Amino acid sequence: MKLTLRVWRQKNADADGAMSTYEVDGISSDMSFLEMLDTLNEELILKGEDPVAFDHDCREGICGACSLVINGEAHGPERTTTCQLHMRSFKDGDTIDIEPWRASAFPVIKDLVVDRSALDRIIQAGGYITAPTGAAPEAHATPVPKPDADFAFEHAECIGCGACVAACPNGAAMLFTSAKVNHLNVLPQGAPERETRVLDMVAQMDDEGFGGCTLTGECATACPKGIPLVSITSMNKEWLRAARKAAKR
Amino acid sequence: MARTVWDSSVGKKTVMAVSGLIMLLYLVAHMIGNLKIYFGAEEFNRYAHWLRTVGEPFMHYEWTLWLIRVVLVVAVVAHAVSAYQLSRRDIKARPDKYVHKKPRASYATRTMRWGGVILGLFIVWHILDLTTGTVHPGGFQEGRPYQNVLDTFSTWYGNVIYIVAMLALGLHIRHGFWSAAQTLGAGSRTRDRALKTVANILALLLTAGFIAVPVGVMTGVVS
Ligand code: HEM
Ligand code: SF4
Ligand code: FES
């Protein structure tokens, strides 16, 4: 396949960026999207140009490092991560627009790489349990009802990629935060911090400059792990419960 | 608790949901009351007078009405201030648009902000027109609401403003009612379809019910 790529190029955080056009040829439909970019970068390096910077790590769809808004959609046209997107989703002769995640809480570092540490700080604010660590405890020691375990697992699937933020017209991190809150709040292990967790994580989310939810649903459509929009409803419920309980203390 | 709620984006959204639902409840009652216009001047004016005597003898003349007015003013102000503050925060959180645009969310979802502004302006005009009579076309008559309504809907602009605002209201409620359920944590996977249906029915019923009044005057059924 022969493709025209329009890629966001930006030297550093302070520089102005712009879309640059590149032609790539000899792309196999079995290549992943990132392998296609690797091909482009090899050519750029041979020509003595600066390769396009983009984030990636596992390339297995599990780490959450890869990003990219492809033709206006976070992680591109399929419901998966960019590393698991294959070139068979495109046609010979296509023009593909590639842009970084856009949100003021995700400043661009270089080209397509953005700083997502704001999500880490939301986790630090409460996305953990304070149980003693050490050897893994006997799994049956703490019984968890099956529906609760399923609910927790569904939310634990979030890989923290930030596609929800990139897709949201308000740059909101509600889907990410709700996935993390719901995952721990439903489990007995997460019970001791049930109230502080949701209050602190939402407060951190606000402090980082993320927007609020207007329930457009763009986040859930973009999420490669299928975290549903109703997760936000569940978090709102947890938040209201926690705010009421905190007021009584 | 008040501080926690007002300082949080999630809490402020709760204020929007609760104030929105209070206004919605009022609008259902208001719409039903308005339909009495179809039963003639005597019944309509008597209904308007009754609104001022509700709760007597426990309440003095107009006390109940003023109580409702105060609650509504608080709801409108809380709703509009939260909407303004949250919208500013949302716009600031996403300053750079994507070069490659894609089709966005549904019409009702996208028009919440502009629709809300239209509703806010409408509320001001509506009160100046039919409550205080400040901008009323023709001589405004205290205690003769039937004639006042006829006067307003005998002007082309009265009909246009009113009908546009009621269409905006329908769209606002369509997304708003369902949204409020999510904000208050009342939504769920199994309840989603029911909530969307109720939102659509409420939107349709209110829009049609309110618009029935100018349509009645325009067609001469109400005269
Ligand atoms: C003063 C005029 C008004 C303004 C400026 C306004 C503005 C807004 C805005 C910007 C939203 C948020 C949209 C979103 O989050 O997607 C909203 C939501 C809402 N509005 Fe209004 N609106 C007004 C009047 C009304 C009226 C008259 C009603 C009564 C039916 C109403 C009911 C609602 C409801 C129920 C919500 C949903 C709250 C939530 O998302 O939790 N609004 N409004
Ligand atoms: S909720 Fe989905 S889109 Fe958002 S960070 Fe988690 S995995 Fe990525
Ligand atoms: S590189 Fe790890 S999820 Fe894509």
From TrEMBL, chain A:
Domain 4Fe-4S ferredoxin-type residue range list: 149-178
InterPro entries the record matches: 2Fe-2S_ferredoxin-like_sf, 2Fe-2S_ferredoxin-type, 2Fe2S_fd_BS, 4Fe4S_Fe-S-bd, 4Fe4S_Fe_S_CS, Beta-grasp_dom_sf, Helical_ferredxn, SDH/FRD_Iron-Sulfur
UniProt KW keywords: Iron, Iron-sulfur, Metal-binding
Cofactor: [2Fe-2S] cluster; [3Fe-4S] cluster
2Fe-2S ferredoxin-type domain span: 1-102
Pfam annotation, one family: Fer4_7
Listed NCBIfam families: PRK07570.1
Sequence similarity: Belongs to the succinate dehydrogenase/fumarate reductase iron-sulfur protein family.
Protein name (record): Succinate dehydrogenase/fumarate reductase iron-sulfur subunit
